[in-house]
Fold:
Amino acid sequence: MALPQPTAPFTAEDYLRWEAGQPDKHEYYHGETFAMGGASRRHVTISGNVFSALDEALEGSPCRAYMADMKVQAAADEAYFYPDVLVTCDPADHRADQFMRAPTLIVEVLSHATAAYDRGEKFAAYRRIPSLRDFVLIDPDLRRIEHYRRSQDERWELQDIEPEQALVLESLEVSIPWQKVFRNAD
Structure:
């Protein structure tokens, strides 16, 4: 009987080459890949609403919004993630094909399957991206917005965005009304 042979770790470079040829999306974290499941209608609607509001508000600025299929590198954690929406103001990112390195804002729309991971390991990795100023979690079921903002002294502060309150992203000088985030997501 043959013994199982140890396999070499799946490096980040291996992942990037492999992922480019895959029909479905996969995230990468410490040598492991994780298949990304399909999103619900509400998830897609909310992501689209946020992207649209950001895209319009950032017109004429050096910042751009990206959605769904653009990866973010969390280099300190040897990780690549697909946030639902991200904004970067870095000119090098605007020329990137595979992944962004310097996001200013990351938005994740929660699902039952990913909520704990998005709040835990993924947010921990995102916090170590030096350029990141804002991290937003949106819960479509509870219609809740949680805005984490990096303060001047590098602490992460949470603000719950209540209904009828705007999501104010000071780092981008953008404000998105709560109603616009959840528009058509009933």
Q: What stands out?
A: The domain at 40-70+81-181 is CATH 3.90.1570.10 (tt1808, chain A).
